[in-house]
Amino acid sequence: MDENKTTSASAAPTPPKKVRRIGRVAFAVLLILAGILLLVQQFVPHFDLLSIVRFSPVLLILLGIEVLVYSANPRIQIKFDWLSVLGCGFILVVVGCSSLVPVAWSLYSPQRDYARSRYQSTLQDQFYQALNADPDLKARIRNLQIYVDFNHTESGECTLQDGDTVSVYVELPENGYADALSFAADCRRIAELSEQGGVRADDYNFRSSTDNSGTGSNYSLDFLASFAQGLTDEQLAQRVTAYYEYEGSSYSTQAERDNAVKAELREQVIQEFADSNDGAYPGDEYISEEVEKRFNQLFPAPAATP
Question: Are both 162 and 257 inside the same structural domain?
Fold first, then answer.
């Protein structure tokens, strides 16, 4: 009889483990916090929600604590509640996007765009006034644009501050320069007058392109305002990027372009002479004179700048 009781007691089934789903607590806490933070953002001016969203990895710590607490109890079986985990991720996305709205508004708001446009117009007028000191140089400018970039992110601040940039773009005459040195001299003089006129510029961009025929010289020069200080025209000319073009073909040096053009003109002169003289070959002196004449018509020397 006693043996039967012992056998019966040992065969008694063990109680089932309780199932705890990991993620429900974190989801509930996050849902409450998200609601509170979004309400605060609506009613508290200049509330920086983005700085709080940076602490979102705390959610992982909370999930880890849940796992440790429940796994320490042998009577509890843990399972991940994937719907709750996905819900946490969705809430983080919603709160994160909400935190970026004020930043995007401060960077691209109509008020900020209007202030940027107003500064650009004011600086452009001030720049033209500074150029009155050299009317001949001012007359050679084909286009002048000033671009202002507000790089600061403070909400409501629409004034030029440290870190903001002012860029000046100047378009000079097409095929208006005999060489890079004369182009660099005008660029340096324009930057000098702008500083004397009180225009705060961070960088300058100068261009002198070819005309629609695609024949001529193309010069460009970009530099920071501080870079040009103390440099001579010759030193600044070393920074000029030059392209020499003929009927749309570009050459890296003027000599290379000139040699290619003269070779083509030479063939034209010989062919034209032969066509009009029953295939006869012209003399070298005639060829040289005709090539130089046609070359000078293609590339007339620009008027000397004072």
Answer: no
Closest among 86, 82, 98, 97 to 39, alpha carbons compared = 98
Q: Is 294 exposed, middle or buried (0-12, 13-18, 19+ CB in 10 A)?
A: middle
Tokens coding 237: 């000319």
C-alpha distances out from residue 11 to 3, 17, 18, 145, 167, Å: 13, 18, 21, 92, 87
- pTM comes to 0.59
Compute CA 45 distance to the chain's CA centroid, rounded to the nearest angstrom.
31
pLDDT per residue over 233-259, tens digit each?
999 999 999 888 888 788 888 888 889
Give CA separation, 194 vs 7, 147, 159, 225, 284, in Å.
Answer: 104, 15, 20, 10, 53
Tokens representing 94 are 């919603």
Instruction: Tell me the C-alpha distance between 169 and 146, whole Å.
Output: 6
- Report the distance separating Cα 89 and Cα 79, nearest Å: 18
Which of 173, 167, 180 has its CA nearest to residue 137?
Answer: 173
The pair of three-digit structure tokens given for residue 45, joined into one six-digit string:
């001016």
**pLDDT score for 206:** 96
Whether 222 contacts 203, CB under 8 Å: yes
Number of folded domains in the chain?
3
Q: Which of 107, 135, 150 is the last residue of a domain?
A: 107
* CA gap 103, 153 in Å, rounded: 7
Mark whether 237 and 117 lie in a shared domain: yes
Cβ-Cβ contacts under 8 Å for 218 (sequence gap 6 or more) = 208, 209, 210, 242, 243, 244, 245, 250
Give the residue numbers spanning the domain of 145.
113-243
The answer for 163, left when phi > 0, alpha when psi is -120 to 50, beta otherwise, is left
Residue 213 is assigned to a structural domain of this protein: yes
